[in-house]
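User: I'm curious whether this sequence folds into something compact or stays loose and floppy. Could you predict its structure so I can see for myself?
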Amino acid sequence: MPQAPYPAPPRSIEEAARDPEWIAHRYDPEHDAVHLLPVPRAAQRKATFLTDEYLPAGPAPLVVRRRDAIAALPSSAPVHFVFHSAFCCSTLVANAFDLPGRSMGLKEPVVLNDMIGWRRRGGQGPDMAEVLDDMLRLLARPFSANESVVVKPSNAINALIAPILTLRPQSHALLLHAPLRTYLGSIARKGLDGRLWVRTLLLGLLDDRLVDLGFSPRDHLGQTDLQVAAIGWLAQHALFARTVQTFGPGRVRTLDSARLMADPAIAMGALGRHFGLPLSDRELAEIVSGPAFTSHSKLGTAFGAAERASEGEAGVALHADEIDKVIAWTQAVADTAGISMAAPAPLIEDRTT
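Assistant: Here's the prediction. I'll summarize afterward.
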């Protein structure tokens, strides 16, 4: 008989709360309730993100009081984070940590988006730090006793990086970004959708008070789409630098996607050590030759380093004049704001130094 596509209905709230196949999907602050959604590990692995758009349609969530769910939890597993500024292979990295018995990567769980949305609306109700701590505990449920959990949130929640790392003093983080030229090329290549997305991102960064570059909101209306994209990139770059300064390189390291793809085995080896998950040469070879690095993280089609580089170069080449001008403008903005364009505490030291 074929295996059921979903977990069996739980016999109790406690059973569902202990089972990582019942993912913490949504948080409802009005009722202080958690929505637990049944998603088997295979479906979590297959989904581009743990969002309704990508999860299979199925049973309705189990809605439980937050305190009831937390009361049932055993000790949390080690949990580490891949924070990012978008379009930088962060989903690839999360997929690479799908290592049964060692680790599981969670890609953009919506419950963290609910937390940042609640914060932006004023966060009335239960203590926000307590709720965030509880949501992190629900995310840190391993599939086996020895597994760690690697969470890759949406970059929409980056204002929560400091609270998350404060609440989880044993957790380590990677701050992943794309080189500015690559990032701008990605935005331009996506056409209207990309250009609208960067303006939505900027609105969120402004709501979170993460943009301090000498511009007024009116100024942003007069900026081109790629200037707005560069502002979002630079604001997140500044946030990453502050994060390293606050928590130190022992807990927080940075990496750019170009270096990741140029030296995947070296990067993944260093990241595994950073996360307390040392990987053997055999494991690294399997990861680099496996689906995380050889297929498109969002489409599932064959897509290796050569295709990735070609796609990126095509996006940059098509808009080269505009991108060159925006990069020069961004450098001037960064210089005025005192922001280094080079991220601190690199995961992989530059081989030329």
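Summary: Residues 255 and 349 are 10 Å apart (CA to CA). The beta strands are 22-28, 33-38, 62-65, 79-84, 103-107, 148-152, 173-177, 252-256.
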